[in-house]
Amino acid sequence: SIVTYLLFVLAASSLNLGIVLVAFVAPTRSASWLDATSAWLTRHNRMIVIVVSLIFGTLFLVKALGDLGII
Questions:
Q1: CA distance 41 to 50
Q2: What is the pTM of this model?
Q3: What's residue 27's pLDDT?
């Protein structure tokens, strides 16, 4: 239904909306935190991509093996 879809979109974008809201409400106080978070994400980008890829790859592998009746 449309309500379920809208709830999904709101939940999926809540982290981004929260960051924008914090930057809008308190731009000077949040600037250092946002800069530090951005620097951390930039420094650890490769490891984040590897971990997320491993998680999704494992989920897809388990689902595929389950559909084939292997596990």
A1: 13
A2: 0.70
A3: 93
Q: Are 30 and 19 in contact (CB under 8 A)?
A: no
Say how far apart CA 4 and CA 9 lie, in whole Å: 9
Q: Are 34 and 19 in contact (CB under 8 A)?
A: yes
The burial class, CB within 10 Å (0-12 / 13-18 / 19+), for 34 is middle
List helix spans (H) across 1-71.
Answer: 2-25, 27-43, 45-67
Dist CA 24 CA 18 (whole Å): 10
- Which residue is listed with tokens 């991509």? 49
pLDDT in tens, 11-52: 999 999 999 999 999 999 999 999 999 999 999 999 999 999
